[in-house]
Amino acid sequence: MSVPSKPKAPLLSYTNAAGGQVALTHAVFDHWLRDKLKAAGLQPQKYSGHSFRRGAATLEFAQRMARILVKNWGDWVSDAVDEYHTMTPVQRLAILKVVSESMAAACGRQMLVPARMVV
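Structure tokens predicted for Integrase:
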């Protein structure tokens, strides 16, 4: 959805009920997220807007985005972005397959590798 904003409005902003432009800050997003989680019958204290940062980094790494771009997009100054690089189920299965094939070759027999991994 595209909503026109004023030239001096913050990059991430929205128009409130009174017609004013409001910056979409971390606090505003967390409040919105808590409301939506409550409405869905979930416990909002178990979630945080920060989860989206990790999820975005994981998705970007899975799409083979360069680390420096993931780091810049997530606004990381430190190397903490590396802590958020979690493997996808497909990547885990690929590692399992390589290890299984190596073990099979060492043992001289075929080992079964699951067709897909259930997470």
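The first strand starts at residue 13 and ends at 15.
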